[in-house]
Specification:
- Keywords: ATP-binding, Cytoplasm, Disulfide bond, Nucleotide-binding, RNA-binding, Transferase, tRNA processing, tRNA-binding.
- It is found in: Cytoplasm.
- The chain has about 375 residues and is α+β, with helices and mostly antiparallel strands.
- About 25% of the residues lie in helices and about 25% in strands.
- Strands 5, 6, 12, 13, 14, 15, 16, 17, 18 and 19 form a ten-stranded antiparallel β-sheet that branches. A five-stranded parallel β-sheet has the order 3-2-1-4-7, with helices on both faces. The protein has a four-stranded mixed β-sheet with strand order 9-8-11-10, with no helix packed on it.
- A hairpin with a 5-residue loop joins strand 5 and strand 6.
Length: about 375
């Protein structure tokens, strides 16, 4: 096959490209220039898409012996990932930019361009596996190394995208083995630190970065009854489940810590309450997709597991489609067997059946397990 290897400049994508060559594919390497400041330099494990990363990818391609190009996707990245991130926070939601990048850049914009140029598949260094079932359908599964598993952030992929995707690292037992292989191949990125945090905020100061883009408007911090218990300098600084940095002027009657229960962008209020008020008995989202073949009848409740964070643990649950209240179309409704803590609108809920990723939804609303503790409201 003719394969386009997305090379970030890290060790995983370099080894994935090398394995694609070993498998006999005709491989071309490409680095995505996503930053609108391409001259910036990387700082340790923060940031990506810098000039240093591009050079690391170039050196890896040279060692592997494949052609290498840099494609400028910075404008598309700004519109589909960065601007989306800002607008979601402005609306009081908690977005996941890695999900949007995979959904709209790496496996949409990049894959579309690759297909138009005659490539059969895009290869990346994600830790996930593609399994072909008895009917020839492709399924997305967890990686062999659960500690490095990245199937969660790939949960947005559709059947058509899976048909043209390759993840050569999926069966690798550990990241240490990938680094050892990179060293044996003579790749200079063998010991390069993994990237972390949000790639387009390399200094890690998300609150400061957002303040420059959404503005800072002071407002009240209130309890579930609406009583003012503190003040904030910008609602964008808070997310559901947060405990630290609340700076409350009025202690809780029982003296226990309080947590953020809700962010209300219209009234510019941050609502706080006891930890048990974070418990969510149900979550739902109308922006859902299936990763491969969907359930035979998704309107009938089925058993599954749900994961709401990239490095979170899956929780037993049931799910089904039902008509969205007051809207056209359906929503994916997920009921965990045990209430979940700190679930925020804007987060992604990925549904698994065993190791298989069945699908995902962006959370639009949640239902409290203890509505009396959140002002008597069941949904938030």
């Amino acid at each position: 096959m003719k394969v386009l290897a997305a090379m970030s400049g890290g060790v995983d994508s370099a080894v994935a490209a090398a394995r694609a060559v070993d498998a006999g594919h005709d491989v071309v390497g490409v680095h995505l220039a996503l930053s609108r400041m391409p001259g910036t330099l990387r700082t340790g494990s923060r940031g990506c898409c810098t000039i240093e990363d591009s050079m690391d990818a170039q050196r890896a391609a040279n060692v592997i012996g494949i052609p290498y190009y840099v494609w400028d996707f910075s404008e598309r990245f700004k519109e589909d990932v960065v601007d989306d991130f800002v607008s979601e926070y402005r609306a009081g939601r908690t977005p996941n930019p890695c999900m949007r990048c995979n959904e709209r850049i790496k496996f949409a914009a990049l894959l579309d361009k690759a297909r138009s140029l005659g490539f059969d598949a895009v290869c990346t260094g994600h830790y996930a596996s593609i399994v072909v079932d008895e009917n020839g359908d492709r399924e997305l599964h967890r990686a062999a190394d659960w500690a490095k598993d990245q199937s969660y952030v790939l949960g947005v992929l559709t059947a058509e995208q899976l048909a043209h995707s390759m993840f050569p690292l999926g069966s690798t037992p550990s990241k240490a083995e990938v680094r050892a292989e990179a060293a044996a191949r003579g790749l200079s990125v063998a010991a390069k630190p993994d990237s972390h945090d949000i790639c387009f905020i390399p200094d890690g100061d998300t609150a400061g970065w957002l303040a420059d883009r959404v503005g800072v408007e002071p407002g009240p911090i209130v309890d579930a009854a609406g009583e003012v218990v503190g003040a904030h300098e910008g609602a964008h600084r808070f997310t559901v489940g947060q405990r630290r940095g609340l700076n409350l002027g009025v202690p809780a009657p029982d003296g226990r810590p309080r947590f953020v229960l809700e962010v209300r962008p219209v009234s510019n209020e941050v609502v706080v309450g006891p930890r048990e008020a974070l418990a969510v008995a149900e979550l739902a989202g109308s922006r859902y997709t299936w990763a491969g073949r969907p359930p035979a009848d998704a309107t009938t409740e089925f058993a599954c597991q749900v994961q709401i964070r990239a490095h979170g643990d899956p929780v037993d649950a049931t799910a089904r489609l039902r008509p969205a209240a007051g809207e056209e179309g359906d929503e994916l409704v997920i009921t965990p067997a045990v209430p979940l803590d700190g679930v925020a609108p804007g987060q992604t809920a990925v549904v698994y059946v065993g190791t298989r990723v069945l699908g995902q939804c962006t959370i639009d609303r949640t239902v409290s397990a203890v509505p009396a503790l959140v002002g008597g409201k069941a949904a938030r």
